[in-house]
Write a structure and sequence with these properties.
The chain is mostly helical and 464 residues long. It folds into two domains: 130-248, no CATH class; 250-460, Tetratricopeptide repeat domain (Serine Threonine Protein Phosphatase 5, Tetratricopeptide repeat). 76% of the residues lie in helices and 1% in strands. A two-stranded antiparallel ribbon has the order 1-2. The N and C termini lie far apart (109 Å).
């Protein structure tokens, strides 16, 4: 009997605990729901006018959101950034720190929704633009952002500022020249990586256009964005080269590397970079030969084979050069560097008049580096030079220039560094192509011309 009573008491206690727990949970859920409802109202008082760019109406509510609902929505800080940028643009420098804080809040409350490299580089750029901190502190901020998340550190402006600060520290005697060279290689490679990605996407859309398909509205916007960003990266690449300036010219490089050669002659990484820099500047020095031979002895690689190919070319040993370049292309894993090797091979074939082989290697270069506009331009030149041998009539021969024009136009669109020359070439080819009166008199409007020479393919005559 006692045993039964104890069992009943235990059951009653368990029911009581369960009831109290349910009541607590109910009150807790109501409290959370109430808090969320309050945050919806609090946030809307700030966000709604901010959406309409009525920042004077939005600003008084911003602090309330930050104090009471800081982690409710990332939209708080996204609109806050727009708001503070507006005030700064209007001349209110007191909002600079608020802008920085808005980005810091994003990282604090929404670490999984932001891109650290992009956000940190934005903060670093704001500090630089507003002269906050020393040059060393500014550089360290960019350096931290890049090393923490290189993938999303993509701003052309910030990449330039990052390198520019390093060069400035060198000029002030606070950074070693080799550190500047190393950062130059890193930044340049990053820019080329972004260019390749953008040009690859752009080329797909250009090919779609060329095939006669109409781009969707979204594709049209993306095409314009890709072209705009490629121009920005091309500009920055030129600016980075300019900023490096005379410290990377042959008169400075040769004594520097001559001094350091003995100490670094067994360092494969140093040899690759140093030989690469001497080669990029076309420095005529026996030191280059020494570096290349030493590099090939220590570690036969894509780079050493490539440099041996260059030396063979200079000695007019075209067959040896081709063998070395082919070895290099097979061993190379970096797409941009592989493209350079294929370009060298293509150039050798082009200069010997083997246009078909040259084009195949230019295309291999473009497969690896779609932003290599010079390859399109070289193909255009070969087309134009072959016009007399491609066609049975004067009209058909002149029509080859339309193909050359297409290649030159593509060069201008994927590569800002070749854009000026490419546009000039395109204009020249357009003038050589059949005119509207030619098309009318030959009754060729809308017809397709097929080429049976090495060029192959076809071109559609424009409609009048």
């Amino acid at each position: 009997m006692i045993k039964t009573t104890n069992t009943n008491i235990m059951k009653m206690k368990m029911k009581t605990i369960l009831l109290v727990t349910l009541i607590a949970l109910s009150f807790g859920s109501k409290a959370i729901a109430q808090a969320n409802n309050d945050c919806v109202v609090t946030l809307s008082l700030f966000v709604e006018p901010a959406k309409a760019k009525n920042y004077d109406a939005a600003l008084p509510h911003y602090e309330n959101v930050v104090n009471n609902c800081p982690s409710y929505s990332i939209a708080t800080y996204q609109y806050a950034a727009r708001m503070f940028k507006h005030y700064i643009k209007e001349g209110d420098q007191s909002k600079v720190k608020d802008l920085i804080k808005a980005y810091q809040y994003q990282m604090q409350y929404f670490p999984n929704k932001i891109k650290k490299g992009r956000t940190l580089s934005r903060i670093a750029q704001i500090n630089y633009d507003n002269e906050i901190g020393t040059k060393q502190e500014q550089f360290d901020s960019f350096d931290e952002a890049f090393k923490l998340d290189e993938e999303t550190f993509t701003s052309p402006k910030s990449l330039y500022t990052y390198f520019s600060l390093a060069k400035g520290l060198f000029d002030a005697g606070n950074k070693d020249v080799q550190d500047v060279f190393n950062l130059y290689d890193i930044v340049y490679e990053k820019i080329e990586k972004e260019e390749i990605d953008l040009a690859s996407k752009l080329t797909q859309l250009l090919d779609k256009e060329e095939s006669g398909e109409k781009l969707t509205s979204k594709e049209g916007k993306r095409l314009k964005a890709y072209e705009k960003n490629l121009i920005a990266y091309g500009t920055v690449k030129g600016s980075v080269d300019g900023k490096l300036g005379i410290i990377a010219d042959c008169p400075n490089l040769i004594p520097l590397y001559t001094r350091d050669f003995e100490a670094n002659k067994n360092d494969v990484s140093w040899l690759k970079k140093s030989a690469g820099r001497l080669n990029s500047k076309d420095c005529e020095t026996p030191l280059f030969y020494q570096m290349v031979q030493q590099l090939h002895t220590l570690e036969p690689s894509a780079k050493s084979a490539y440099y041996l190919g260059i030396l063979a070319t200079k000695d007019d040993k075209d067959s040896d050069a081709l063998n070395y370049f082919n070895q290099s292309a097979e061993l190379e894993t970096n797409p941009s560097d592989k493209a350079k090797v294929y370009y060298k091979i293509a150039e050798n074939f082009r200069k010997s008049g083997a246009y078909g082989k040259a084009r195949s290697y230019y295309r291999k270069a473009l497969d690896n580096k779609p932003s290599f506009g010079t390859c399109y331009l070289k193909i255009a030149q070969m087309y134009a030079k072959s016009s007399n041998g491609c066609g049975t009539t004067v009209f058909e021969k002149r029509a080859v220039n339309w193909l050359a024009m297409q290649m030159a136009d593509k060069a201008a669109r994927v590569d800002a560094s070749t854009a000026k020359n490419a546009r000039a070439a395109s204009s020249s080819y357009r003038q050589r192509a059949p005119t509207k009166s030619d098309i009318f008199s030959e009754d060729m409007a809308g017809k397709t011309i097929t080429f049976n020479c090495w060029i192959g393919g076809s071109v559609k005559v424009p409609n009048l």
